[in-house]
Amino acid sequence: GITGQDGSYLAELLLEKGYMVHGIKRRSSLFNTDRVDHLYQDPHDPNQRFKLHYGDLTDAMNLTRIIQETQPDEIYNLGAMSHVAVSFDTPEYVGNVDGLGTLRILEAVRILGLEKKTRIYQASTSELYGGMSENKNERGFYDELSPFYPRSPYGVAKIYGFWITKNYREAYNMFACNGILFNHESPRRGETFVTRKITRAVAKIALGLQEKVFLGNLEAKRDWGHAKDYVRMMWMILQAEQPEDWVIATGVTTKVREFVRLAFSEVGIEVEFKGEGVDEKAYVKAIDQEKYSEATGLRYPKPGEGNNEKRPAKNGLPAIGQEVLSVDPSYFRPTEVDLLIGDPTKAKEELGWVPEYDLASLVKDMMQGDVLLMKKDAFLLKAGHEILKQAE
Ligand code: NAP
Ligand code: F7E
To answer: Which of 19, 137, 212, 286 could in theory staple to 270 by disulfide, Cβ–Cβ 3.0 to 4.6 A?
Structure first.
């Protein structure tokens, strides 16, 4: 999973700590290493400390060979088809990669006789809880003892990964741990997860590159942290004295609707929501011109100069009254996880984990990243070039 969001941050962290990092990338018809290209090292460099191998979690022989060749001290299994909604479309594949893929790594380590040498981190997930309210602890959170009730093929596959990791720890005395991580985001988050979809769209709307965004369930609540904080904890889990399972979360839960509001606010745009259910929409209520200019580098026209009037905003700056969000039921899931909130007390008290980001600083970081990214598009368009139409 080195080419993914977490894999890229973890690779940076391990390199900083002096590790030799081996990662597995999948063969793809396009380059798929954008997130780690800045870490690339020439294989002819005698001091190479970052190396990518072709492989796949569905290929046991390939995994076994790579583990044999590299003899790792630590394995972080971050590889997965990680999109919950897509898992309803590709359930068998998800079972194979996210479930059996975990077994393939554990079994390879065992077959190669590396049980005592190699520590294993398994990327488990808050999706295991399924948001069942009766399963929260007495303080209203999910913790390491809360029962599981997965609500998607992704969650069901990951529960196999969780239990097979625990089983290999108990059966073969392996240092194999689950990190039960709640949602974590960043400027490198996959573009179709809700936070990144929002920050990309809001940046485009602010720059006049897009008129509105369509989302699904605005009522869903998630416990969102920053991926940088969470990969640090992955490393700490493998440095612990005993192999155990750990919940990593912020302990704060927020609705998707509120995330939208916060993202717009970062570029000085106040939005108001009107209507209910599938008819709910968001409109621009006010624009703080100073904040807008500071965030986008564009001057917002004064009243009377045109842009403050209600008008179709296509390829123009956002206007007061502009409809910037609609609900599209095609983004609803067959079964939804309504609310997630985690209790990271064990991680904080026993491993001394202290997250650096809260929700406000996470949204700021993501918005800054996406405004910068979309400004490149605006620049290209202005110069007469085409820009990619990447949306879902
Ligand atoms: P991500 O950005 O989707 O990255 C997933 C990684 O897995 C990518 O490198 C991907 O490769 C790789 N992968 C997918 N299928 C594979 C296969 N068949 N064989 C080998 N590699 C494969 O996910 P993330 O957000 O970094 O999350 C990392 C892990 O934590 C995942 O296991 C995820 O399920 C889990 N998790 C994530 C969160 C979260 O909020 N981010 C929370 C809890 C748990 P490509 O780049 O080629 O697609
Ligand atoms: O959805 C709602 C959606 O896709 C969050 C993965 O990293 O975290 C992630 O799974 C919520 C859901 O993440 C849209 O219905 C509304 O309630 O960003 P998401 P997720 O499903 O929580 C867990 C912990 C993982 O382990 C996973 O790997 O937002 N939502 N409208 C939407 N979601 C998406 N994607 N797109 C929408 O338009």
So the answer is: 286
Task: Give pLDDT tens digits for 291-308.
Answer: 999 999 998 877 666 554
Nearest CA owner, ligand 1 atom 14: 80
Catalytic residue among 3, 12, 121, 127: 127
pLDDT tens per residue, range 36-94: 999 999 999 999 999 999 999 999 999 999 999 999 999 999 999 999 999 999 999 99
First-residue to last-residue Cα distance in the chain? 22
pLDDT tens sequence across 166-188: 999 999 999 999 999 999 999 99
Token pair of 386 as six digits: 């085409």
Residue 331 Cβ inside 6 Å of ligand 2? The answer reads: yes
**Nearest of 243, 225, 99, 82 to residue 178 by alpha carbon:** 243
- DSSP E strand stretches across the chain: 21-25, 50-54, 74-77, 119-125, 176-181, 184-185, 213-215, 221-222, 225-226, 246-248, 254-255, 269-274, 281-287, 323-327
Count of residues in the chain: 392
Is 129 within 8 Å of 145 (Cβ atoms)? no
Q: What is the dihedral of CA 76, 77, 82, 87, to 10 degrees?
A: -170
> What are the strands of the beta sheet with 74-77, ordered from one edge?
74-77, 119-125, 176-181, 246-248
Compute the distance from residue 100 Cα to the ligand 1 centre, in Å. Answer: 15
Q: What integer pLDDT is reported at residue 152 of this predicted model? A: 98
Q: Is the pLDDT of residue 357 over 90?
A: yes
346 with 143: CB under 8 angstroms? yes
SS3 155: helix
Coil, strand or helix: which one is 104?
Answer: helix
CA 100 to chain centre: 22
For the CA of 217, the nearest atom of ligand 2: 16
pTM metric for this prediction: 0.97
